[in-house]
What we know:
Number of helices: 11
Number of strands: 4
Shape: globular
Structural class: alpha+beta
Helix content: 40-55%
Radius of gyration: 20 Å
Oligomer: single chain
Amino acid sequence: MNIDRYFSTRRTVRRYTEQEVDDNLLTRLIEEATHAPNTGNMQLYSVIVTRSEEGKRALAPLHFNQPSATGCSVLLTFCIDINRFNRWCEINRADAGFNNMQMLMAAAIDTSLFAQQFNTLAEIHGLGCCYLGTTAYNAPQIAEVLHLPDGVVPLTTLTVGYPDGESPASDRLPVSGIIHDEHYHDYSDADINSLYAEKEALEESARFIAENGKDTLAQVYAEVRYPRATNTQFSESLNEYLDKTFFK
Length: 248
């Protein structure tokens, strides 16, 4: 692998061969991933490793039955975890104040860095990975399947395996639309149209618009893929779950 071109050419992999990921390799990659930066060196995260077909089948519906959830060698659920640190504090007679928004944010950042460091390491070692954004949608149900105690919240999931064929590249916005020098410069309508022009011109974008009976790609994203009613429903479910298990 050409490390100099790794980030500019990396691909999300959703189809895998039947080759299994070796346990020793997986453990080594997870151990190396723990060296990612984290808040106060507290490592407020855990990862649940699901290898069994039974385990993957139990989780698959909660990830909307995406094929990669059952087609992968390993399913990794990365979790916010204040339970372990709270237990350490309790045993050592320390008053831990971690069940609040500040520490939820800290732990979410730590968990994301841990997951991404694993993702990078895995791909460098010839594996393919795909993030499943559905984890937060069905966090309460995933927590039940994985027997997560209070203070442990599923945040994101990675499917991992050996790539089956070449995966397509994903489009990205021009970096000029991401960088803001010194302070945030808000966008004019012309800026927005220019930044999204390439995405909107893609053949697959035209197909998405036609398939969903919409006029614009923005409508597909906002009204079909991530509609307000669904966002509200999942938000309410997640808030209720966090109130019961994290902010208690």
